[in-house]
Amino acid sequence: MNRNRRVDLLAVGLMAIPAIAALLVWDALPAEMAIHWNAAGTPDNAVAKPLAIFGLPLFGVATVAFVRLAPDATTSTPGGETASILFLGVVFAWVETLVLVWNLGYRFDVLLATLPVLVLAAGLVWYALHRATS
Q: Membrane-spanning regions, if any (predicted)?
């Protein structure tokens, strides 16, 4: 199996983990699930449970496919396709996990929960810049 395919499968696998976990706790989840929060940390958008559980990972898979298949001029992926796809897999899995945890009744500071994504994004930019100068 080539390296690109392994990276794609890793990214998709990461996105599948929260979806599988959600299936295990399906009955404990509300029929309408919060999927977006405002700056105050209050949910401001909710969707039906099936869309919340399966929509985000499906969107993630479509994004991975787009980044891998679209012409480089269209995507302009920082750090290259592989680094970007790994970033996407981790971020989608993180966001799916946050949605799941929140809808199971565990509350957390939403702004603080976005910090790992910002750190990863900064790391991706650093990697892209470092790679470009090497």
A: 7-26, 46-70, 82-104, 110-129
How many whole angstroms separate alpha carbon 37 and alpha carbon 134? 40
Segment-wise mean pLDDT, segments of 10 residues, the chain, 134 residues: 87 96 97 94 94 94 88 64 89 96 95 93 86 72
Q: Would you state the pLDDT for residue 69?
A: 84
Residue pair 87/67 in contact by the 8 Å Cβ criterion: no
User: What are residue 106's phi and psi, to 5 degrees?
Assistant: -90, 125
How many CB atoms neighbour CB 61 within 10 A? 18
Residue type, 60: G
Residues composing the chain: 134
CA atoms within 13 A on the CB side of 38: 5
